[in-house]
């Protein structure tokens, strides 16, 4: 399985990297947090570590550390706008439950 991005997410990442003026891609991860156990971490990556797994989709590199990969395998990253809210959305097939606030999940 791979980690993929929608065209909307890819465009947003490319635009941010271009405005930022540096970076090799987007780093996705998870950390312990919230009432359900795990929360997503998303940041721009300036380098790829030797142990990282790199996926490329829609012309965008997605970089994931090995510990996070077990939670993110098969995930599709999207970028959505709903009313005044906009942001990245994780379509993760591994999620069994999420908290009411939408900040955390468990697998």
Automatic annotation (TrEMBL):
Residues 1-103 form the Core domain. The keyword Metal-binding applies. The keyword S-adenosyl-L-methionine does not apply. GO terms for molecular function: 2 iron, 2 sulfur cluster binding; metal ion binding. Its cofactor is Fe cation. GO terms for biological process: iron-sulfur cluster assembly. It holds the Pfam family Fe-S_biosyn. Keywords: Iron, Metal-binding. InterPro entries: ATAP, ATAP_core_dom, Fe-S_cluster_asmbl/transfer, FeS_cluster_insertion_CS, HesB-like_dom_sf, IscA_proteobact. GO terms for cellular component: cytosol. PANTHER family: IRON-SULFUR CLUSTER ASSEMBLY 1 HOMOLOG, MITOCHONDRIAL, IRON-SULFUR CLUSTER ASSEMBLY PROTEIN. Belongs to the HesB/IscA family. This is Iron-binding protein IscA. It comes from Candidatus Muproteobacteria bacterium RBG_16_65_34.
